[in-house]
Write a structure and sequence with these properties.
binds NADP nicotinamide-adenine-dinucleotide phosphate, globular, alpha/beta, 14 strands, single chain, 7-stranded parallel β-sheet
């Protein structure tokens, strides 16, 4: 087969770097275009020195006609709002797009506008876009023009929770999700909250009860299981570059053993979900597209623990997995 030609829109950020890093080693895909608002003329490797000698694609300003003419698929690594407008321009020119932002993840535009506090630039596509989690939506992803790549925290919560809710193994009105993320989850642009002196040797909660990933978790668990859920989600910033550990407290209708059996059954064909007996750590999955999850009985609750890499299964690894599904490849291609 011919190589899949990939354009990276928003090439100067962290998810773009991770996407390029994976794609340079992919046997059937190559990066052929990259864009930025301010770094035109430089190569991707000048912006991301770890790619030196591996990716010399020149960065250009965004031109929808040019990207659509050069590429088979675009990975749109932009912030929400800006992303939807860009995705619209590319899709109307016939290009398939994997959108890293939250713009097309939710089921309805009211939910999006309530939580993101912006008017959606392409509201008619909200709710009819494939959610980029092949473990549950491979059939929709295969033929999709736009794939809404999942959020990082949501990936670490939806994967363990959805099968358990679907099988009625846990109470749905009392789910506490306590998540810790590395600092790359906040993106590469300069912000006081992610400065070295703010994050080093320190862990802090943020956006308690109001984080935008809470509605995404609830919405997708509902969509997958058919049952509405109420979660309380508290994210924490931790002094690591990358990784997410979610510790999820559920009220039990079952046992940890039955939870793990349920996962093993649900994910029997899922290449990247590993149900483990040990307590997963972010180091066990760092730099990989793998998810590790386990469960423990604790009195009247079961504690679920899930580790992912926010930049891999939480973003760019998932995007490459989605690209593989969209183009008829084995979803592990270039990722193991
Ligand atoms: N970081 C993660 O772990 C993670 C995980 C899952 C999903 N995501 C999502 O993935 C997307 C990219 O995240 P990231 O962490 O890579 O962000 P980032 O490091 O901040 O990079 C964002 C990119 O978007 C460009 N950009 C910023 N504002 C823009 C605007 N108004 N219009 C056009 N381009 C703009 C920037 O490029 P120039 O300034 O050079 O133009 C930069 O290349 C976001 O939607 C984020 O929520 C991130």
């Amino acid at each position: 087969m011919k190589d899949i030609r990939v354009g990276i829109v928003g090439a100067t950020g962290y998810t773009a770097l991770e996407a390029a890093r994976i794609l340079v080693a992919h046997p059937h895909a190559r990066v052929v275009a990259a864009t930025s608002r301010g770094e035109t003329g430089k190569s991707i490797a000048e912006i991301h020195p770890s790619l030196a000698g591996r990716c010399d694609v020149r960065i250009d300003t965004f031109d929808a006609d040019k990207i659509a003419g050069q590429c088979d698929v675009a990975m749109c690594c932009l912030p929400h709002g800006a992303s939807a407008e860009t995705v619209h321009q590319l899709v109307t020119r016939g290009l398939r797009v994997i959108d890293f932002s939250a713009d097309f993840r939710l089921s309805n535009v009211e939910l999006y506008e309530k939580w993101y506090d912006v008017e959606h630039p392409w509201p008619e596509r909200v709710g009819s876009t494939a959610y980029g989690m092949p473990e549950f939506f491979a059939d929709q992803i295969r033929d999709a023009d736009v794939v809404a790549n999942p959020g990082c925290y949501p990936s670490s919560a939806i994967l363990p929770l959805a099968p358990l809710v679907k099988e009625g193994l846990i109470e749905t009105d009392d789910i506490i999700i306590d998540s810790k993320s590395g600092v790359s989850g906040a993106g590469r642009s300069a912000k006081v909250a992610t400065l070295y002196c703010e994050t080093n040797e320190s862990i802090a909660a943020y956006s308690v009860g109001v984080h935008r990933h809470q509605p995404e978790i609830n919405d997708l668990v509902h969509r997958i299981s058919g049952t509405p859920v109420a979660t309380l989600f508290t994210p924490h910033l931790t002094p690591m570059d990358r990784g997410i550990l979610s510790t999820i407290y559920v009220r039990s209708r079952s046992t940890a053993r039955k939870v793990m059996d349920c996962w093993r059954h649900c994910f029997a064909d899922a290449a990247f979900v590993t149900v483990v007996e040990h307590l997963p750590a972010t180091k066990h999955v760092a730099g990989t597209n793998f998810v590790q999850m386990t469960a423990r009985d604790c009195d009247h609750r079961i504690v679920l623990i899930c580790a992912i890499d926010n930049l891999a299964k939480g973003a760019s690894g998932a995007a490459v997995q989605n690209m593989n599904v969209m183009f008829g490849l084995d979803d592990k291609t270039g990722l193991v």
